[in-house]
Amino acid sequence: YTLGANIALEQPLALAQGKELKLTIEEGVVLSIVDTATNKNFELIKNQGTLTIEGEGKITVEATNNRGWNNYSAVIANTVGGTLTVKGVTLEHLGGTDMAYGIDNLTNGKGTSAVATINEGAIVKSTYRAIRQFLNGVEANNSLTVNAGAVVEGNNKSIWMQDPNKNANTGTL
Fold first, then answer.
1. Run of H or E residues at 146
2. Burial class (CB in 10 A: 0-12, 13-18, 19+), 48
């Protein structure tokens, strides 16, 4: 699919396991959503399939509430079973929460996987942390590859490899 005009979503999107989607966002085009949640996780795109996003446009989330450490807000949650490839586009989280991510790469449980690749020309930005690798799974495959020519920029940290408990895996970067 090619996005050729700005779209402000009212509801998040999801790509199910076993599904594939290639989204091209044309130059100057913005796919956006406002996150007004106060007590739940939020993602503009929840990916559990194979998602490729490319082009010269932008995907943004603007969160209006700071939920502290209770819940995350992400442009893309690449979660259990997800394979994400980003090239050329800008993913930007415009804040409002301490748990704000451009990409949240999430594993959860034994044998789960979340694989993200950020390629040339891509920009991932957040007012908190640009990318989180949430390593919450024993024997999980949580990998992140950032290739030359990509920009990853977070006001607090650019990439956070979070091992939240004794079940955390090491992840790869």
1. strand 141-146
2. buried
Q: Residue 6: what are its φ and ψ, rounded to 5°?
A: -60, 140
Do the beta carbons of residue 101 and residue 91 sit within 8 Å? no
How does pLDDT run along the chain (173 residues), one tens digit per residue?
Answer: 999 999 999 999 999 999 999 999 999 999 999 999 988 999 999 999 999 999 999 999 999 988 878 889 999 999 999 999 999 999 999 988 889 999 999 987 777 889 999 999 999 999 999 999 988 777 788 899 999 889 999 998 899 888 777 666 667 78
User: In the block, which residue shows the tokens 């079973």?
Assistant: 81
Report how far residue 13's alpha carbon sits from residue 29's, in angstroms, rounded to the nearest whole number.
18
Residue 71's identity, in one-letter code, is: N
Q: How far apart are the first and last CA of the chain?
A: 30
Cβ 130 vs Cβ 99: under 8 Å: no
Query: Where are any strands of DSSP class E within 16-78?
Result: 20-25, 30-35, 42-47, 50-55, 58-63, 73-78
DSSP conformational letter for 164: -
